[in-house]
Write the structure tokens for this entry.
Amino acid sequence: MAVFCASLALAAGAAHWYETPRLNGVAEQSLWLEPDVLCAVLASASALALGVLTRRWATQPGAIAAGSALLRGALWVLLSVVFLGVWGHYLSLLALLVAPSQAFAALRVLALLSSWRSELR
């Protein structure tokens, strides 16, 4: 859960430092060293890492859509659209990097929470 919150905080940092590109010739510095791009890449990487590392626990019985890849795919698309709506205004094209990976992590967090809740019963 902390990694997901860190990913959201990094995306908020990217939104805070985002500047629209200036197309006036030679770049002043490398694109990869700009704070908004660095935060967006780190937000996406941390969300993807969370999703990959929790695969075993998020697909066990009791988790949301544990047995249906189609349902997990549909939920991922729905969450991607929600995150695109949230970050689209603030991050412009960087939202295409951040939103799908955060949707993947959010789906895993929901699956982990539902699996944990079913184990408590």
